[in-house]
């Protein structure tokens, strides 16, 4: 009995190692003092400072525009890619290639996209970042939708085609409703990935106004402040909410499929 309890020690130590810095960050975001390392009392003033920081607000606006556009691209292409691989292809090579953006280091993807945009003479700016983030997140959406596809009933699609419906009608009226929870979960994941993606945006942004992660990078070069802690806490809340919502939607889809 004692030995089994000892086996849990590395497990809990790992969790403490991963999440203790995040807890400290959130706590220090409510610090009333100027120091990011000494807690002097509870205060919300740094969140008020964020609301008045024009650089942060502009970065947030650019990030939301980029994340929304990238999510649309990633959701559409990722869903079509997942359906194509699951229903119309049996090539392991294509499956491996579809996961490459999720496996390759962000730096490699960023440099490759920068060279590609240069070859096609695409002016770097907001559109290039949207395309880059959309292509990067597409692999993650495809993986989520592919998982949802494995739990769908293919007999419904076969019955639809036997009754005279074409491939497009079957996809829109039969396949798509079954995939809806997975598509929404993938879209939330894509939005979260684009929201805090730094490396790809840094290489493909050009001379446009900075996104929020780049603004944070420029701020943190001069030291960590409670204002940065407050901004990081807000991003943490948004990411956490998106992940929980994605998990709940996936579970809802699985329960409906079982019913």
Topology overview:
Blueprint (H helix, E strand, L loop, with lengths): L1 H27 L16 H8 L1 H34 L4 H7 L1 H4 L2 H14 L6 H24 L4 H9 L4 H29 L3 H6 L7 H9 L5 H33 L1
Task: Describe the protein.
- Helices cover 79% and strands 0% of the residues.
- The protein has 259 residues and is mainly α.
Task: Write a concise keyword list for the protein shown above.
about 260 residues; mainly alpha; 12 helices; about 0% strand; single chain
C-alpha geometry: globular
**Gyration radius over CA:** 22 Å
First and last CA, distance: 40 Å
Order of helices and strands: HHHHHHHHHHHH
Given the structure, what is the number of helices?
12
**DSSP helix fraction:** over 70%
The number of E-state strands comes to: 0
Largest sheet: none
Provide mean pLDDT, rounded. Answer: 81
How much of the sequence lies in strands comes to: under 5%
Poorly predicted runs are none
The computed structural class is mainly alpha
């Amino acid at each position: 009995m004692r030995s089994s309890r000892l086996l849990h020690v590395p497990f809990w130590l790992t969790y403490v190692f991963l999440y203790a810095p995040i807890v400290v960050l959130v706590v220090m975001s409510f610090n009333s003092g100027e120091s990011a390392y000494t807690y002097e009392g509870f205060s919300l003033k740094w969140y008020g400072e964020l609301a008045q920081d024009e650089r942060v607000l502009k970065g947030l606006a650019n990030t939301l525009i980029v994340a929304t556009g990238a999510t649309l691209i990633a959701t559409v292409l990722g869903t079509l890619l997942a359906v194509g691989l699951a229903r119309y292809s049996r090539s392991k090579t294509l499956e491996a290639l579809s996961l490459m953006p999720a496996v390759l280091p962000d730096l490699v993807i960023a440099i490759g996209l920068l060279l590609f945009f240069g070859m096609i003479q695409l002016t770097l700016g907001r559109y290039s970042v949207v395309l880059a983030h959309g292509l990067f997140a597409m692999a993650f959406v495809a993986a989520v939708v592919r998982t949802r596809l494995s739990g769908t009933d293919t007999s419904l699609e076969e019955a639809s085609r036997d009754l005279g419906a074409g491939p497009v009608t079957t996809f829109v009226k039969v396949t798509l409703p079954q995939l809806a929870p997975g598509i929404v979960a993938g879209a939330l994941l894509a939005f979260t990935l684009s929201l805090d993606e730094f490396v790809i945006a840094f290489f493909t942004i050009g001379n446009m106004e900075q996104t929020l992660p780049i603004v944070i990078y420029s701020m943190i070069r001069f030291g960590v402040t409670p204002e940065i802690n407050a901004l990081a806490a807000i991003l943490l809340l948004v990411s956490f909410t998106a992940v929980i919502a994605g998990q709940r939607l996936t579970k809802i889809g699985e329960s409906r499929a079982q019913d």
